Plexin A3 (Pogonophryne albipinna), 668 residues
Amino acid sequence: ILVGGLEYFPGTLHIYSDSALTLPAIIGIGAGGGVLLIAIIAVLIAYKRKTRDADRTLKRLQLQMDNLESRVALECKEAFAELQTDIQELTNDMDGVKIPFLEYRNYTMRVMFPGIEEHPVLKELDSPANVEKALRLFSQLLNNKMFLLTFIHTLEDQRSFSMRDRGNVASLLMAALQGRMEYATMVLKQLLADLIEKNLENKNHPKLLLRRTESVAEKMLTNWFTFLLHRFLKECAGEPLFMLYCAIKQQMEKGPIDAITGEARYSLSEDKLIRQQIDYKQLGEAGTEVPVKVLNCDTVTQVKDKLLDAVYKGVSFSQRPQADDMDLEWRQGRLTRIILQDEDVTTKIESDWKRLNTLAHYQVTDGSLVALVQKQVSAYNIANSFTFTRSLSRYESLLRTSSSPDSLRSRAPMITPDQETGTKLWHLVKNHEHSDQREGDRGSKMVSEIYLTRLLATKGTLQKFVDDLFETVFSTAHRGSALPLAIKYMFDFLDEQADKRQITDPDVRHTWKSNCLPLRFWVNVIKNPQFVFDIHKSSITDACLSVVAQTFMDCCSTSEHRLGKDSPSNKLLYAKDIPNYKSWVERYYRDIAKMPSISDQDMDAYLVEQSRLHGTEFNTLSALSELYFYINKYKEEILTALDRDGYCRKHKLRHKLEQAINLMSGSS
């Protein structure tokens, strides 16, 4: 570089080709791009596979939905068809059936002392002379109103005097006073008046009165109605109640009933509904002696029960043979007879489950001949045995295909796992408590709600019988039968008590009457028809009757029931009917209130007549002996209470009781 006289050398300039990245950078970028490309390809493959799986799942769900829809349609179609045909069949089947009413004594005993077959009040008291003398003195004291009231109130004040004791004392008193019903009624009215007073003093809601059996008076009231409504049951209300029982029993037996759990294809109770598809076939309807219909899924005991039901139709349950006393023979040819049993060497065992034998298990075919014969112990003990008898049983049934299914009574025995083998018995459905359900079982339970349509079908079939019973109970003059005097007399008494205490709320009066008669008497009878009739009540029949009884209680209530999707099925089942039933109850109470009052003289005459008719049903001394147990247990408290009361002191009731106590202990 020349600038004027200066010369300058800045250095050497090197020019390279244009390159933005180094070789390592290029290699790194290439490797990163490759990894990214592989990742994108992997994501695309996974997405495609996921989409294919989703499509497959969607198709499977669509197929399940289609199956569910077809099953729901089939169930609804079956339910509708059953609804159209069953009512006529039930009515025809029950024509001419004799009603097996219990005798007055057995009927009253089952209500007063449920579950006790041989109660002491039915037997003669075998006791020394001093004991008998003491009991007669005790009887005189019980016939003194002030002593009896003091005795009852003192017992109720004791903490150890349990609910069971209250019911027992009430029943023993009514048994002991059966020959003096007019006196028992006077005492009952006083006890009820005292109970109302106590209820108001404790500031309890008036509607709670008579709701539960928390006093001797409440159980006495139940027994009082039991005594005085027996004739009304026999002449009027018993028939629709028995028809309802028969209708429920026959409708349940049209489909399979699980002999272990008591669940059934047809039910009013959601808890006792079989929620699985049970494949079954109908066998037989004609025979040489008695027409019978059975199912191939019935256990041997269920078949025996069905045969006995058919042979002894109209005969009291206690008067006929029991299934356990009979053998079921399958007759093949002229000589070969196979005795069928619920369990034998052919019984199938899977894992720890043992399945009861059914007609299908034995491959009993259409046209086969079976006979019910007296049990042969030796033959019964030989599993899968053959017996050769010379004469045929008079009870035989030829099994042929029939148009309608039927099944046998399920007794729902409580069968526990075998302690030695650990096997558990099952029939149609395995107990839900066990977790070893097969995948197929779980799958069928996913759609179990569709079987609830059967509740509606069963309800529709039984509707006529429920309506007949409710209409009879809530009518003042049904089928020419007048309203029992006891109902009018007690309702008027409750109205008098409400007037006396200035209770003007109509809902309170309505509730008192509902708690007094429908809830204390009718609900008990509806749930337990075996208290009125000589019959057997199976677990599925019991569950259905409980739904009817709950409906009966709901229609007597003054409160509005708000129903939603979480409401119990039994409430939803009769939701549309209850307003109509409520109007029947209200009309019934109004009609009774309008009827002319019954004078005390007329009522006493009626009660004296009842005492004359039934005064010897129970052994009075035996009832007094049972009551004396409470005198002995609470002796000091009762003697002290007698001392405190002015009337009791004036009439020396403590002294008389001490005399009875001394006689009982054997001292002078």
Summary: Confidence is low (pLDDT under 50) at residues 379-415, 434-443. DSSP finds 23 helices and 13 strands in the chain. The CA atoms of residues 145 and 186 lie 9 Å apart.
